[in-house]
Amino acid sequence: MQSWNDNAPIYQQLADQLAAQLLDGTPPEGEVLPSVRSLASRYLINPLTVSRALQALVDNGLVESRRGVGMYVRQGARERLLQSERQQFLQKEWPQLRAKLQRLGLSASDLNWGQQ
Asked: One MF term from GO for this chain (predicted)?
């Protein structure tokens, strides 16, 4: 079961989660997304909230609505997401992470990039 936090509206959290799935290639570009009802049932939220999340993805140019057929992943959506996520990481997250590494006295040689 999905747990939502109070840091952002639920529709935005769902849109972010769906965008992360798109970034991972699920569903692939050109393929249909699950229906509003299906997503509402899966995440146990109101269909209007799901519709708002999907509209956020449309507004960001990641999916397109095909009247009477459903929502489809647009060609180039993954690349658009990659560029956006990379930019956000480098501008917002990396400076904070770098500062924390410096505070902790960690260097690149302390980090094990190849293993999880």
From this structure: DNA-binding transcription factor activity
